[in-house]
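Team,

Forwarding the record for the chain on the shared tracking sheet. I've put the sequence and predicted structure together so nobody has to dig through attachments.
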Amino acid sequence: MCHGHFGSLVSNHRRRRDDRRDDRGRAVSYRADACRSGPAAVVHVASPAMTLTAAVQPLVTATDLPNLLVEVGAADPGAAKCQRAVPDATVPPAVAPTSIGSSIIWVYNAIEPWARYIADVAAYAVGWIPYVGWLSGQIPIFYNFGERIARSITYNIAHWLDGNISFTQGLANVGIDTINSFIFLANDQLAFWLPPLPPIPPIGPFAAGCRAGSRAGRAA
């Protein structure tokens, strides 16, 4: 009986050894098949063609910037308040002389501002001289007196040469302008030598003027 039990153990041990050999054989066969099959196949995925539109869009040039700023200002109410009208940089062309008379007037208008400047500089310089500096205001007074007469003579001669007025009419104009110049000279001298006058009381016709001035002040 012991001999039979020992025989069954031996037979079971052999059976398990054969099973292990079969498992190793199947593993080696699988690895051999994998090596013979070679590398895995590469799968190529086709993607649809894409069109890039950024490269074909027109670029913004410097000439388009003002229009873009206007569009931004129209879209943003707050930015529209900050807009200011740009002044026109065009300069009106100078009127060239077209006749003898217009040439004389053009030359006079070009020289007179410099003559007035010289008179103002002289008045400024005299004002620094002791004892007589307070008389410097007489220089612009007499300059204005002479300039009024000189302007009248120059303009009337120019108009007479162009045939716009007669010689008699020109003399009459110069005479009237000379009389007016003496009147203005008297007013300037009174304003220079006399102290400031006190306020005029509201009596007679001056009262109506005072009331009209006060109403105008309240309305303003």
